[in-house]
């Protein structure tokens, strides 16, 4: 997508490395994730990240430049490493799998606090917000084929927007996670998937 392409082209840490450079990137991003999960975005310090990763400060400053640069590259890496979309043979099965994946991510002891820190950073920093939009754009694009297959099987009305179907699954889960701070449970995920499926079948996402 255009936003993701712009991020890849312009943001610090955007060149995909190989060899030793890949190991440096992996170590720095691992340290960044741990620091975000433990202390949040505003405590992110490049000197401490370099020390935790076992790399030189100059390398971190030259390549990532700022805490925002670290978060941007971390989100890109998370999108790249995320599990691929399911193919259970039915739209219902695929949407339930998507809901469970989101649930497992947000309730994970490490990933949950990390996402909370990134969302908080995006609320007050436009570059972080751009990076977060890029992450979700990538994940939505990777899961859109489950709705496209549903369309091909006749499970959805013609003209249904696949992205909107997938977005409808995760939206209530993220609302509970980031806004209302209500508990997330397997039942919550099942309801989100069922509601998205019912709305899609009724034509709510036809464009």
From TrEMBL:
Top-level taxon of the source organism: Bacteria
Ranges that cross the membrane: none
Location of the HTH tetR-type domain: 22-82
Family annotation (InterPro entries): Homeodomain-like_sf, HTH-type_TetR-like_transc_reg, HTH_TetR, Tet_transcr_reg_TetR-rel_C_sf, TetR_C
Ranges annotated as DNA-binding: 45-64
Pfam families documented for this protein: TetR_C_11, TetR_N
Keywords recorded for this protein, A-Z: DNA-binding, Transcription, Transcription regulation
Keyword Transcription: yes
Protein name in UniProt: TetR/AcrR family transcriptional regulator
Organism of derivation: Streptomyces xantholiticus
